[in-house]
Every structure is written in C-alpha cells, then in structure tokens.
Amino acid sequence: MTIRATGSRAAARPARGRRVEPSRRYAVVMAGGVGTRFWPWSRESSPKQLLALTSSRSMLAETIERLAGLVPPANILVVTGRRYRRQVLAASPSLTAANVLGEPIGRNTAPCIGWATLEVLRRCPDAVTAVLSADHVLGGARAFGRDLERAFTLADRQQRLVTFGIPPSGPATGYGYLRAGHLVQGAAPAREVDAFVEKPNLATARRYVSSGKYFWNSGMFVWRADVIWRELSAHLPDLAAALEAMNRGRRRGGIAAATLDRAWPRLPSISIDYGVLERSRHVAMLPASFSWTDIGSWDAVSGLWPTDAAGNASRDPLLAMDAASNVVATRGKPVVLLGVEGLVVVDAGDALLICSRDRCQDVKGVVGRLEAAGLGSLK
Description:
Number of strands: 19
CATH superfamily of the largest domain: Spore Coat Polysaccharide Biosynthesis Protein SpsA, Chain A
CATH class of the largest domain: Alpha Beta
CATH topology of the largest domain: Spore Coat Polysaccharide Biosynthesis Protein SpsA, Chain A
Low-confidence stretches: 1-16
Radius of gyration: 21 Å
Largest sheet: 5 strands, mixed, barrel
Strand order of the largest sheet: 6-9-7-8-12
CATH architecture of the largest domain: Alpha-Beta Complex
Distance between the termini: 40 Å
Order of helices and strands: EHEHEHEEHEEEHEHHEEHHEEEEEEEEH
Number of helices: 10
Strand content: 15-25%
Structural class: alpha/beta
C-alpha cells in the first residue's frame, strides 16, 4: 500500500476557515509503555495510563472522554501494548476491538504513529488526525475544544504538522521546549517552529522563559494523515517501507500477530519529534489556551491532588504534624506523618515506596533492579 499526498498543496486547501467535517476527524491515542516512575502502583500488568491518578477514572478513559463532541467515537484509535488490549477495552467501553492496535513491544512514537496513520488512511484517505498521549492532564475543556478545532482547520487548510505549545508557567527542566518563530500567514496565533530544544538546565530554562520565545513541547499533534505519511516517508524512508510491507500482510481482521511479531522488533526505535518534526519545514505551533501537565513522576501529582497549608499532597486520610512538602498515595489507608519533609510515600499493598521527592525520577532505576534483588514479581 503506497500512500501519496492527494493533489497539490494549493488544490488540497478547503475554503478559508471551513471546519473539518466530523467524518474526517480522527484521533490516535498513544497508550504504550508502563510508566515505571509510578512504581509500585504502575506494574507490567497495570501500566500508568490505566491508573486513576487524577480522578476516579483511568487517565486513558479521561483522554478519550475529552474528545467527546470533537471526534466521533468510531474514529478514535488507541495504540498500546498487545498485552493491555483487554484492559484498554474494559477501561473505555466506547472503543471497539478493531480500534485498539496492540504493539508486540515498544518501539517509540514514530513506528506507533506510522502504523496508526496507515490504519486511518485505509478508512479515510483525507482524514485529519489528532495524536494525543494517554498520560497528559489537561484543564479547560472548552479551551481544549476550541484549540483542537483551530488545529484541525490549520492542519487541513495549510497542510501543516501542527503541535501545541504550552506557555511556560516557570523554568521547568523536565520538559522539552519549542522556539517560536514568525506568525503563520493567515493563521494567527499559530507560529512557525524555529527549533525543538531538549530538556534544559535551570539557568537555560530561566533564559528561555524570560525571552518569551519558548514554549513547552506538549507532544500533542494534529495533521492530515496523508501529509504526515508523506513526511514520514521522506525523512524515515526505511521505517515507512517496513510499515508498508507489514501492512500488505493485513487480512480482514487486521494484521496477523505472527506478521507483527516478525516485523515489529526490526523497526527502528525513534521518536516522531526526532525522526520527522525536527527535520520538516512544515511544522506550526499553536499556543495552547488550556492547561497541561505531563505527569512524569510521583512528584508531579503534588499540583493535582489536595494539598494542605504545609504543602503535603494526598487524596487519602492524612494527619501531618511538623511535616511539609510530602506526597502520600495509599489508596485509602490513613497515614500519619511526623517530623518529615520532602518525602514520597506510596503504598501498593504488596510493596511500599519511600523516597525523597528530588529522587522521583530515579524510581525507574529501582524497577530495573527488582529482578536482581529477588523481587521480580513486583515489576
């Protein structure tokens, strides 16, 4: 199956300002990975995106519900690990089995997006697709809806690869940044993207924020399916060819597991940012008017959970005496903190994590050592 862009850039543009019809709107939700920094709640059997970290619903379910009224339910695809397909379907009753693509192993975002793009193109050759992550927390439903509408229109009318830039609220060192360029003609407030910048140190982050030219890289995108396939083919031709070869083995019920098992591990593990967006000349950034949080570790929930006057964050019964700036997650078990500061306490029933908040990123390394410590069953 060889995909080509449909017509010239000018011929493909709809009338100025015309909304993208609902039937042409698709969404791909990336729900792979385990989220090892959220151990011991996240496990190989229960990954981060299926946890209820911000409400009574899983983060995946919240992501899908956020699309209500914006993308038809039948046009929402989820890409996840093959072993999680049943859990994903249980978490989101609106999904059908045909809309859940199961990767044999993780190969980063470019293969994930490439496979989903081929599936979208098979269903709707002129689709406009939003690509979202299942573990982002967004605030302001109306603002998100307006911004997504603008992104659909911009991606369709100008054949741009649109990414959302988050106005920084401070000099964060845990996010990548986008350097904004000139306004996109006829599409303000969208801007050209002059550069993708890796996570900076604190001094550099402060300089970025004070300049007013940098935005956090949200990792959320909107583009025409044929346009992202054209760009992927141009910048990652070996990956595109391998995905097309894999797709030629598709049967009525989808790509056979044996075909995936042979082809998928051979694909390059590369991100869509590094493989395509940083090399493309057609990227535009839309400044987001909604709030955004990428929950990367236990430390991040402190801004999302109830917090007392001393900065102790918890959704569970908590008595804190001479204790400050702690994060507690026990799934309902009462906790007493006495004379401690800056700790993370996470109880999973069969395992307990206690660490300093400034070491939350190192929890991933702890998971890597469980097997050697004879605790492999807790991975």
